[in-house]
Amino acid sequence: MYRYSEFDTAFLAARNAQFRAQVERRIDGSLTEDEFKPLRLMNGLYLQLHAYMLRVAIPYGTLNSAQMRKLAYLAETWDKGYGHFTTRQNIQYNWPKLSDVPDMLDALAEVGLHAIQTSGNTIRNVTADHFAGAAADEVADPRPYAELLRQWSTDHPEFQFMPRKFKIAITGSANDRAVIKAHDIGLQLVERDGVLGARVIVGGGLGRTPMIGQELSPFVSFDDLLAYLEATVSVWNQIGRRDNKYKARIKITVFEHGIDAIRAKVNERFLKVRGQFKGADMALLDRIKAHFAPPEFVQNGQSGFEDAYRTDNIFRSWVDTNIAAHKRDDHAIVTISLKAHGATPGDATAEQMRVMADLAECYAYDELRISHEQNVILPHVPRAHLHAIFKALQENGLSTANIGLISDIIACPGMDYCALATARSIPVAQQIATRFEELKLEHEIGALKIKISGCINACGHHHVGHIGILGLDRAGVENYQITLGGDATETATIGERTGPGFAYDQIVPAIERIVETYLDQRLDREESFIETYRRVGMAPFKAALYPEARADAA
Amino acid sequence: MARAFTPKVITANDLIAGDVIYQTADDRWSRDLAEAELITDEAHAQLRLLDAVRQASKVVGAYLADVRPGPNGPEPVHFREDFRRTGPSNYAHGKQETSPQPRA
């Protein structure tokens, strides 16, 4: 867990004092909205449909219990008692008053949290594999490097007025849980001849023009990585398109120039900036690494687990669904679902946040993670404690056993909150989850990722959902387009549109027909939805969705 | 030929609370769409919008929103405006907390 240095603390205090003064000047009329807007956005404050929204960064998705408790405190002191965890490892408060926001930021600073660069055309919160440091399959914990990137990118003078926002994700594992191919830059830690470095992916992104990132370099050693990234962002900062907002992201720059031309420019620029990095970054990285030393794992952490697993059926089902393998056999990674059937995906009440903080402190080495899939993770749990954790979760509406299943839906806030949205997302997610819970089909269906966005900006990652749903405004009516076959992992794929969209009251029945088609087509229970789709293609799903088209053709 | 002018109200967000507000005929800002001034003349609409935009220390992002006249005052035309006058659909937050705002 990174602990702020005196420099960090002073920097944040100064920045918060600055913003407090800006808010005061806006309220007393000395600043117009046009003048104030860029200032508030630099501090994560949006004005949405019904209220302001404060977006707080959770750097690389890592929190300790004190930080989680502070998030709960904000929720009940200045909001309506809950917070919304997002697909970029942030938390959003939907109801703050402008005059309260400086106090909220000061409260966050007490535990080393902030809202800096959670908006605007800057390098945003660096996201990471939510199993980082705990997964058995990783080369190294990516978070020290993510923290180095945060320090490098925060207030970086060259990168404050870029063509558009810039998002970086990092993973230490070949099994991509951080969607690195859908980021402006995706980093995968790799080792070559005993030297740690990263494979650099560039030009991925969803939104209006979805693209899968391409490999800029198969290996850049850590010594050179910061210079290489600075060169990459710098090349885009110069040649990225500022004439058209929709063509400004680096994915378009890479697409228009071609990856080879971009690579040549980056290499040229890299040679120029490399000399400016004289090893201070590596010294800093060494210091940061010490903050991320693994906890002192208890020995024989599994004692008593087997008995509870054998005797408690509900516990067993939860373990089978929500637990992932830890790098130590006697420990486990627990994913706490924020997707109770019918609840808003990613929302947690202040009370639930406190329960999770207590569990982390009491049983799990004081660590929590937020996943881009809008769930909370206890990354290091001795198996002996799983049953006690489960019982506490059960009492607080947090024990839903649905990770990776049809009701574990990613959904953006949509038109219930967002000023950019063209349709609602949340009620669609709620209805799908409720419907399949009624049908008791969830576990029968197995692994299936549904992702819902309420506009083409794709915060809900719909393009990379096995089933993607995109809410649009068609002539003043909500309409939902479906894509199939998307994939957010190392085999990232953009889903394919099924055809015309569906009305608000027809979208859940449409999803049901897709699922029925899968159950009908699959070879056996072992063949997952995405495997069946890859084998049989779009045709049977289309036939089920648009029977009238088939009748017309006949 | 220019399109015929359709009825409008002036709406914005409150500077401090951020919530949705509507300009009334007697120059107040109301939380309730039913109290909004129904504007049926284009020139009058532009003048009223100028009035609203000038109140920068009270309101943010004033604009003209389409409405249709109803028995209890203006009613939203687009579903986005219906959400703005009511609040989100997943919790009874926003205007639903204080006064009944039936969804159209």
TrEMBL record, chain A:
GO molecular function, one term: 4 iron, 4 sulfur cluster binding
Domain Nitrite/Sulfite reductase ferredoxin-like: start-end pairs: 52-111, 342-395
Iron among keywords: yes
Alphabetized InterPro entries for the sequence: NIR_SIR_4Fe-4S (IPR051329), NiRdtase/SiRdtase_haem-b_fer (IPR005117), Nit/Sulf_reduc_fer-like_dom_sf (IPR036136), NO2/SO3_Rdtase_4Fe4S_dom (IPR006067), NO2/SO3_Rdtase_4Fe4S_sf (IPR045854)
Keywords, ordered alphabetically: 4Fe-4S, Heme, Iron, Iron-sulfur, Metal-binding, Oxidoreductase
Pfam families: NIR_SIR, NIR_SIR_ferr
Domain Nitrite/sulphite reductase 4Fe-4S: 119-270, 408-545
PANTHER family: BLR3264 PROTEIN, FERREDOXIN--NITRITE REDUCTASE, CHLOROPLASTIC
Protein name: Sulfite reductase (NADPH) hemoprotein beta-component
Native source species: Ruegeria marina
TrEMBL record, chain B:
InterPro entries xref list: DUF2849
Region Disordered, residue ranges: 70-104
The protein's name in its UniProt record: Sulfite reductase (NADPH) hemoprotein beta-component
Native source species: Ruegeria marina
Species lineage: Bacteria, Pseudomonadati, Pseudomonadota, Alphaproteobacteria, Rhodobacterales
